[in-house]
């Protein structure tokens, strides 16, 4: 064969370039081609370093020639060079000036990765066994300092090779534009600027065409412009066509054509490309004789191509062919061969793919075996090591999903953690490694429910999204994974921001993925799942419609036999079931059952998700039974629920849900046919769920509640059984875990909705068991839970600090941080940033630390009940200053628990019921709505509006009469029997009321029998001075509150006659005049009026003044109770911000605004209103309003109130409750003041 002259592409020549700062120099290393011998001729001038590499004889009788210029302002005597057969190095002292130059590039072995981690090497020079040159920017800060010192160029060979202008440069600029290299005299030559093919060559020469293709492919690798890939394919195809089958390079050229077709298939998804690739690889194998050293690699490429087509089409013949060819490649390759780990890894991936299709355990075992072998053969620090670990971790994850063995998920996490650790930042595979680690953590979280796993999963998935550029093929996958993580955390914690983030990321993934994207169906299914979870929370019908729409699209895009088909069917079944619950259309529940049944049928036995699918099928049958009453449906429900429980392994976080579903079906059949066995089995299911030490606390709390309900049903047979009380004890233990302090306040309030009647029903049960003290304790423990948690964080721990100073100091520090973060803005963002996510996770970590410290303290002698709910022995002290009446309203019974002189008395309210209380509350709401006293902003400025034949103010009378006869009168009779009465006629009997349930929204203080003109025959205001308290703990706390010494009264007066966006309140100016009259000295009143009453100024004034008078608009936000607040000039002072205050100077607040003690109907036991919030902030007493008040009533009440409370500008001995009582008495005596809508809304809370 005649000798040829070949010019290796200049771009491979530079291997490294770095700055040695210590020695003030630049080091450049040149890797020489694989040659038998080499020589270097080297010359240096003041501006140019040039050298020439020449090769002797190679095995192919090919001569190599290489020329290079390096431009730098250096002297030849300053240069140092060294030469070996493989490497030529130059050491250049750093120059002080020069022209700007591009980033240096590093030659690397090229790989074509896909999402399964397969790698395919691609040739770059025209000869078997060589490798494609891929270039990456050297990520070195020092390069920036070299930019002005060095520029590199290549002189054109005159050996007949074709080159393009782009081939003159082995570097790209920072913005990825092509570099320009000046000639010796400066400027750019005509040749360099032409960009044309030059220097001879023949476009019908297969070798030239092949080199052209390599050049195009190189620029595709750099810039990912699909046009370069298309050009490469055209040249490869032409080169292969022109090469005879007998030519020794034909297999090699066909192989490269096949590889680039696979690359385009992975980008564009065209089936024709993968078909054509397989055809070329098959021809390559056929043309290569047995025993040829490249034959194993050709089998390997053919197998990988079949694997790619299988992943797209799911045809079994393709996966069988993939396995056949990959096994051949592995069997023909010795362990010491550098490609053996590649072959083993893709063989393992193919076994994993067949496992996903057929579910045969032998395949997953073989997959793990091959991936383990690949890892073992991969040298430490090899660049392929992370991908090997990632593939092994993925295989362990899949076996865990099938068998549920915890050792497998631990192995998956460990291997993915190592893959992330060994993958440098900036490498293209880093996002993939992060995603796989996140998915493994997510799976472990779904098994164990450990919060740390889901937190870390989100961090890894978020980082993967950030590292994946827009337009990258994997970007939708990264977004989808992040959306799944947020959705799982929402399911665990219930934070609305998480489900919003989930939907946002899933929508983004769906938008970025074309319809032919291999994962589009999965993205749609996950988006649908997120929508149906938001529907569960908010109840918006549009969300469930979106859920069904996206799930149906996912099913349409997924062929039968696809391993994900059962998931998509299960999700659409849940969505139909949810819509049935709302619309009660029989067709929806029928579709749900069909979808779930098909999902169960398609899911292989042993799969970790199968129990959940079976449980969903049982739930659908239960729903249809509840709708149609067919016994066949409830029987099917129970069969499926029992099977789901049996198949769910112990320790799985869904196990409590499975027991609950079984309990629901058994209790439904019991209620239908009264089979005693169903009652006992239902109790057993709920009891087991409640006692499990794992799973969501909310699910176990639900079980405890249902257990208590069924246990009451059994009381008819065994009246003295203890289990019903045991159920409530478990429930109260779970309450603080369900409304965990690590959650936002809004989320805690949402979780509490499910327990809204727990305390009242438990108390009624305890009373029926003749244990009123336990009833009182449970009422205190199960009400105002969130307020109690905040107070816990503020509780002084002086005794703990004295005995155990280390624990005390740590607890104080963590409590302070927790309290600051409880209502932070990071909980309320629709789009949470990375810093806000970190703040949320920090808050939850603090909550876990707080729990740990408190647990440690309770193990110390003398601190066994540290920060536990108060027992009766402590609660009874709330009655030191007068009787306290706790009114319990339950569906089981209504009772009054009366504490007199620290002794407890019980009065059963025989003629009152929970239903009656509900009716009274609804009647009152109707009255207020008709009179315009419940409209959001139509408050102080509005008088009563009577519509139609509505009875107006007279409609209050039957409500107040019922409260008198059924509630207040029996209580007063009990007090009278114990000789409790008014000390004097002027003072009046002081009573504190603590109502529960619907009674919390009714004006007990105004109960009585009234004439048509509003005068009373007999009423509570004629007999006693009433105050309210949300809990007994609030009374105890405020009674013990000691005010710091002060020289004079300091009152903050916030006056808002006009507020942007709402009706004017001219009467507020009258209130200011009244305050100044009674306070005497201007120095004792700090006035913020009009535009001066900003949020910042008002909150600052509250910290400085012990008394506050707020004359402005008040708002009760029924959708978001914590956003209720007071309207000032620049916005709303939210309740969520008020409760963050711990005002040590606070003593009394007069809320001369509207709806400041209205509360939230859905959470009556939580006292979510401004008045309670002021008590929590530190005020001992608060005057507030139950509904909107008249603008002319407020100044009158304020005048009479302060007239009794102050004398010569200083407080008298009169208590605020007493002052308000007599002020309201005078209002009733005023012409027109006897209207119930005028005087009834004013109340006093606190001490």
TrEMBL record:
InterPro entries reported for this sequence: CHAT_dom, CS_dom, HSP20-like_chaperone, TPR-like_helical_dom_sf
Domain of life: Eukaryota
Domain CS: 5-105
Pfam families: CHAT
SUPFAM superfamilies: HCP-like, HSP20-like chaperones, TPR-like
Name this protein carries in UniProt: CS domain-containing protein
């Amino acid at each position: 064969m005649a000798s040829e002259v070949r010019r290796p592409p200049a771009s491979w020549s530079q291997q490294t370039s770095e700055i040695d700062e210590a020695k003030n120099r630049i080091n450049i290393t040149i890797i020489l081609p694989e040659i038998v011998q080499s020589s270097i001729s080297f010359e240096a001038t003041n501006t140019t370093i040039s050298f020439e590499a020449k090769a002797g004889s190679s095995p192919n009788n090919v001569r190599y020639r290489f020329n290079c210029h390096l431009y730098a302002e250096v002297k030849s005597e300053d240069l140092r060079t060294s030469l070996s057969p493989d490497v030529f190095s130059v050491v250049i002292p750093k120059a002080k000036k020069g022209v700007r130059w591009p980033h240096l590039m590093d030659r690397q072995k090229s790989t074509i990765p896909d999402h399964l981690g397969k790698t395919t090497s691609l040739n770059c020079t025209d000869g078997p066994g060589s490798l494609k040159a891929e270039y990456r920017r050297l990520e070195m800060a020092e390069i920036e300092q070299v930019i002005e010192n060095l520029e590199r160029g290549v002189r054109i060979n005159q050996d007949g090779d074709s080159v393009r202008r782009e081939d003159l440069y082995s570097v790209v600029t920072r913005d990825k534009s092509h570099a320009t290299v000046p000639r010796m005299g400066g400027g750019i030559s005509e040749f360099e600027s032409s960009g044309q093919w030059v220097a001879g060559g023949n476009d019908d020469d297969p070798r030239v065409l092949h080199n052209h293709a390599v050049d195009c492919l190189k620029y595709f690798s750099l810039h990912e412009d699909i046009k370069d890939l298309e050009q490469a394919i055209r040249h490869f195809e032409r080169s292969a066509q022109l090469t005879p089958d007998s030519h020794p390079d034909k297999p090699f050229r066909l192989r490269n054509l096949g590889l680039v077709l696979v690359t385009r298939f992975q980008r564009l998804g065209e089936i024709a490309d993968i078909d054509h690739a397989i055809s070329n690889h098959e021809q390559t194998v056929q043309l290569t004789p047995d025993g040829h050293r490249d034959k194993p690699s050709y089998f390997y490429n053919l197998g990988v191509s079949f694997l790619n087509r299988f992943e797209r089409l799911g045809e079994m013949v393709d996966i069988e062919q993939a396995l056949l060819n990959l096994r051949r490649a592995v069997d023909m390759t010795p362990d010491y061969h550098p490609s053996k780990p590649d072959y083993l890894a893709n063989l393992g991936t193919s076994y994993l793919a067949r496992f996903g299709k057929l579910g045969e355990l032998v395949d997953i075992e073989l997959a793990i075996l091959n991936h383990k072998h690949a890892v073992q053969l991969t040298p430490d620090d090899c660049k392929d090591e992370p991908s090997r670990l990632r593939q092994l971790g993925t295989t362990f994850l899949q076996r865990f999903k099938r068998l549920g063995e915890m050792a497998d998920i631990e192995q998956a996490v460990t291997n993915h953690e190592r893959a992330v650790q060994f993958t440098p930042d900036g490498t293209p595979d880093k996002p993939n490694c992060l995603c796989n680690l996140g998915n493994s953590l997510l799976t472990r979280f779904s098994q164990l429910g450990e919060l740390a796993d889901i937190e870390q999963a989100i961090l890894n998935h978020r980082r993967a999204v950030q590292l994946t550029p827009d337009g990258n093929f994997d970007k939708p996958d990264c977004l989808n994974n992040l959306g799944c993580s947020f959705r799982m955390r929402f399911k665990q914690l219930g934070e609305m921001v998480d489900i919003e983030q989930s939907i946002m990321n899933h929508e983004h993934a769906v938008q970025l993925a074309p319809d032919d994207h291999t994962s589009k169906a999965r993205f749609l299914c996950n988006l649908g799942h997120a929508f149906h979870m938001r529907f569960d929370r908010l109840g918006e019908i549009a969300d469930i419609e979106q859920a069904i729409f996206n799930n149906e699209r996912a099913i349409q895009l997924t062929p039968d036999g696809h391993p994900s088909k059962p998931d998509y069917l299960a999700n659409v079944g849940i969505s139909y079931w949810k819509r049935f619950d709302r619309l009660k259309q029989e067709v929806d529940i029928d579709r749900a059952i069909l979808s779930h049944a098909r999902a169960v049928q398609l899911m292989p036995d042993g799969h970790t998700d199968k129990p959940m699918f079976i449980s969903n099928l049982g739930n659908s049958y239960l729903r249809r039974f509840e709708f149609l009453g067919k016994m066949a449906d409830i029987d099917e429900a129970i069969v499926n629920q029992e099977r789901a429980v049996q198949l769910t392994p112990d320790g799985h976080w869904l196990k409590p849900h499975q027991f609950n579903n079984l309990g629901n079906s058994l209790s439904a059949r019991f209620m239908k046919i009264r089979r005693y066995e169903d009652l006992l089995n239902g109790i057993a299911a709920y009891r087991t769920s409640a006692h499990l030490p794992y799973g969501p606390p909310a699910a176990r709390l639900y079980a405890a509640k249902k257990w208590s309900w069924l246990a009451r049903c059994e009381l008819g047979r065994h009246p003295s059984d203890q289990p019903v009380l045991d159920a409530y004890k478990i429930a109260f233990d779970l309450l603080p875990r369900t409304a965990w302090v690590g959650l936002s306040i809004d989320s805690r309030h949402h979780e509490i909705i499910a327990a809204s009647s727990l305390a009242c029903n438990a108390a009624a049960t305890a009373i029926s068991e003749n244990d009123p003290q336990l009833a009182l304790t449970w009422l205190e423990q199960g009400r105002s839970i969130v307020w109690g948690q905040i107070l816990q964080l503020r509780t002084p721990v002086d005794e703990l600090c004295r005995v155990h100073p280390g624990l005390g100091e740590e607890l104080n520090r963590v409590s302070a941080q927790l309290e600051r973060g409880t209502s932070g803005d990071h909980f309320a963002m629709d789009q949470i940033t990375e810093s806000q996510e970190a703040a949320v996770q920090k808050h939850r970590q603090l909550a876990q630390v707080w729990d740990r410290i408190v647990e440690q303290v309770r193990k110390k002698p003398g601190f066994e009940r540290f920060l536990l709910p108060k027992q009766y022995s402590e609660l009874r002290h709330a009655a030191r200053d007068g009787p306290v009446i706790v009114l319990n309203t339950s569906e089981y019974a209504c009772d009054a628990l009366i504490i007199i002189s620290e002794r407890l008395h019980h009065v059963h309210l025989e003629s009152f019921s929970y239903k009656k209380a509900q009716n009274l509350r609804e009647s009152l709401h109707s009255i207020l709505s008709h009179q315009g006293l419940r409209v959001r902003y139509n408050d102080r400025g509005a008088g009563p509006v009577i519509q139609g034949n509505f009875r107006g103010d007279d409609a209050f009378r039957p409500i107040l009469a019922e409260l008198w006869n059924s509630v207040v009168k029996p209580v007063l009779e009990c007090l009278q029997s114990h000789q409790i009465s008014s000390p004097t006629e002027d003072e009046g009997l002081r009573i504190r009321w603590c109502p529960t349930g619907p009674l919390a929204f009714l004006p007990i203080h105004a109960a009585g029998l009234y004439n048509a003109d509003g005068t009373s025959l007999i009423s509570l205001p004629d007999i006693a001075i009433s105050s309210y308290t949300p809990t007994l703990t609030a009374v105890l706390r405020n009674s013990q509150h000691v005010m710091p010494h002060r020289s004079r009264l300091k009152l903050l007066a916030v006056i808002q006659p006009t507020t942007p966006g709402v009706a004017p309140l001219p009467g507020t100016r009258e209130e200011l005049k009244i305050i100044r009259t009674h306070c005497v000295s201007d120095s004792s009143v700090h006035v913020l009026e009009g535009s001066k009453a900003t949020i910042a100024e008002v909150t600052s004034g509250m910290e400085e003044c012990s008394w506050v008078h707020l004359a402005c608009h008040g708002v009760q936000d029924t959708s978001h109770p914590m956003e209720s607040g007071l309207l000032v000039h620049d916005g709303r002072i939210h309740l969520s911000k008020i409760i963050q205050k711990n005002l040590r100077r606070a003593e009394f607040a007069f809320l001369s605004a509207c709806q400041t003690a209205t509360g939230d109907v859905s959470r009556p036991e939580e006292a979510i209103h401004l008045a309670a919030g002021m008590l929590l902030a530190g005020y001992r007493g608060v005057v507030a309003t139950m509904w909107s008040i008249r603008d002319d009533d407020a100044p009158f009440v304020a005048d009479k109130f302060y007239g009794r409370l102050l004398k010569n500008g200083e407080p008298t001995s009169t208590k605020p409750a007493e002052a308000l009582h007599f002020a309201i008495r005078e209002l009733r005596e005023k012409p027109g003041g006897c209207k119930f809508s005028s005087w009834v809304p004013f109340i006093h809370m606190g001490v």
